[in-house]
Design brief:
Helix content: 40-55%
Number of domains: 2
Strand order of the largest sheet: 3-4-5
Distance between the termini: 19 Å
Number of helices: 7
Number of strands: 5
Radius of gyration: 17 Å
Shape: globular
Largest sheet: 3 strands, antiparallel
Structural class: alpha+beta
């Protein structure tokens, strides 16, 4: 588990892609993997990602599972889901499935590796983010609710971080508690 935490601390997956239509920056699954591969090799870990088609009612979801192994043993696992759009202009059905797979994989990676959108501490953007965001600590009244909502999947870690000023240790603790609650 120390190797996972070490990689979570070191991993930097900046949003280097730009959506020219929407005018926003984003990171792709490939961007995350490019940043991750050297760290996995450094720590002697092997990562695989698999997809599974899941039917819920009349809708299909892609369930992506990230599995981390050390010496052949699973030491960490996480999932992400994305729903296939019924139609998407300019795409055939296989492209729609591929898009859902990419999203599901990206969110599974985000969950396992605690990838967030915090700003670099040396930037003005970070200082503005820090000033506007209230603190969320294990002692705060909203901590248990945040853990519960994260465990239920009612809110994402990214959304929690968007609203609260979390230290790295609090992020790790929140994620850990949510996993424990989700497994219990």
């Amino acid at each position: 588990m120390d190797k996972i935490l070490s990689i979570q601390k070191k991993l930097k997956a900046p949003k280097n892609q730009k959506n020219s239509f929407g005018g926003y920056k984003y990171r792709s699954c490939e961007d995350i993997l490019e940043s991750l591969k050297p760290l996995l090799a450094e720590h002697g870990l092997r990562q695989t990602i698999s997809d599974e088609l899941v039917n819920v009612g009349d809708r299909y979801y892609i369930k992506a599972t990230v599995t981390i192994k050390e010496d052949g043993e699973v030491i960490e696992q996480g999932c992400g889901y994305a729903r296939e759009a019924e139609k998407k202009k300019g795409m055939d059905e296989s492209q729609i499935t591929g898009t859902a797979s990419s999203y599901a994989r990206k969110y599974a990676l985000n969950g396992v590796w605690l990838i967030d959108d915090t700003k670099d501490a040396d930037t003005d953007a970070y200082q503005k983010q820090k000033k506007k965001a209230p603190s969320l600590t294990p002692e705060s009244e909203k901590w248990d609710k945040a853990v519960e909502n994260l465990a239920k999947g009612a809110v994402s870690m990214a959304k929690i971080e968007e609203h609260y000023n979390l230290s790295d240790s609090h992020k790790n603790k929140l994620q850990y508690e949510a996993r424990q609650l989700g497994e219990g």
